[in-house]
Amino acid sequence: MTLASAQFVLSIAVVSVVALLCWPRRHRVLPLRVLAINCTTVAVWSGVELAAVLAPDARLAYAAKLASSPVLLVLCSGLLVLSLAVLDRGWEPSRRLLLALAVVPAATAVAALTDPWHGLVLRDVLWRGPGHEVKVEPGPLFWVNVAYGQSLVAYSMVRVARAWHRSRDSHRRMLGALLVGSLVPVVARVVWYLGALPVDATATGFTVLAIAGYLAVSRNWIERMPLAHQRVFESVSDAVLVVDGGGVIVDANDAARRLARHLRPRQGGELIGAAVDGLLTGLAPPEHGSAAHTLSDVWGSGLDLHVRVQAIADRRRGAIGWTFVARDITELNRRRREADQANARLAQANAQLRAQLATIEALRADLAEQAVRDPLTGLYNRRHLMERLDRLILDAGPAGPRLSLAIIDVDHFKRVNDAYGHGAGDAVLTALARVFAVDLGIDDLLARHGGEEFVVLMPHTPAAAARQRMEELRRRVAAAVVETDGRPLRVTVSVGLASAAGPVDRAALFQAADAALYRAKGAGRDRVVADRDTRTGPAGAA
């Protein structure tokens, strides 16, 4: 294998692995989704270039070289989209932007298909036999494509470089890694054009960029919880900033952007990715709880601000971010100095401030609720289930609680995904979550355990009553019809049930329910199978 073909083979292997690593988190982190698509595009481009190198004759090498031009332009557009997604964490690509970026690659593809008649893309190829790099004699459209692609890459790198200059800590390291990774294929291409390299190392450069991009985004990207009440967030008249653990602004409402334009007019209202110290300097966020600050004549603008800082806490890691609520109190201070008119207006301002703080508190509570919810079904997640079960065991003391636990598995769920697509699978899970929630006891807890598995925790429920309820649930599921894109689907579930009355070992309880579930599946599915009572004493399993 020659050096020319070896680098394309290596590039295909590495970027394919990176794409597979990015794909599972594509719905939660937009940059990883874009990076996965870009890696796929690199693999396609490397495959086409490898076909040109291994072509048995000049005619096939010429066709492969023509095919690589539009693919390379698609990759340049993907790098632009990646930079936009990294710089603005709330950004989503619009359909208009994607269509605009597709125009030039599509036109290039048409030109490549008709190139044998006009020779505007490639005038000729220099083919030296299979295994050797294919050199081309470019036409005028080839250089137009080069200029267009390099312009997209240069624009992306300039934006990333400017954001890198303004950022700090983990966000700065991520942008720096992407910037350096983007330079590698550009430098490799330029050096090859100048004749300093024996082969074109652009594929190797793209491989380095894929690895650098994945390491930077996956290690430093903060997967923020969605704000369920975005309209409320934008309607707050005070300036609201959401800041990550490194002091970088990750979200801001319109009032905050207007405040930024007023305080720092030369920098405009762009806030996402900037350091909060660059706007509200001198504030020390609390590690826990909240703190209030009054800033006078901020940046010499004549504005006085009242800023309330609220920590967004995680039980294990402490503060993972903060909310800054800044209220313009310039006029309020003036009215306070005019004592004869201040009392009524001050009371009104305080009432409005309390209302705003109540809104922010409701928003913070919603963030905390989202942390224990499954984003697809809205049910509690596995983490909350385990915490609730541990509290039940702890509160019961040595006597142990009386409870039942059921693991519910959707029968043949993979067939639904394979036959109708993952969108239909998601619709089935969402519909079943609604069916499961019917007639839940006041103390019961329904959670999504993972994949197509659900768990129902039933405190103070003996085995017989739990089995009767699970049988009723199974019948409701069998009778339900799920509509997916106008197609009715029916599914069934298998249920494994375990009960305990006495000292409980959590792992043993789940193992018993899981074993019962496997027996239900082995017996033909669409049934409830109960395990014997699961008890653990001081010496182990009874």
TrEMBL record:
List this protein's GO terms for biological process. Answer: cell adhesion involved in single-species biofilm formation; negative regulation of bacterial-type flagellum-dependent cell motility
What PROSITE patterns does the record tag this protein with? GGDEF (PS50887)
UniProt KW Membrane keyword: yes
Where are its TM segments located?
A: 6-23, 35-55, 67-87, 99-120, 140-162, 174-195, 201-222
UniProt KW Hydrolase keyword: no
Q: Which Pfam families match?
A: GGDEF, HisKA_7TM, PAS_8
Keywords in alphabetical order: Coiled coil, Membrane, Transmembrane, Transmembrane helix
Q: Which residues form a coiled coil?
A: 329-370
Q: Name one GO cellular component term.
A: plasma membrane
Q: What residue stretches are annotated with the GGDEF domain?
A: 401-533
MF terms from GO for this chain are: diguanylate cyclase activity
Q: Which PANTHER family match?
A: DIGUANYLATE CYCLASE DGCM-RELATED, REGULATORY COMPONENTS OF SENSORY TRANSDUCTION SYSTEM
- Protein name, please? GGDEF domain-containing protein
Which species does the entry assign this protein to?
Answer: Pilimelia terevasa
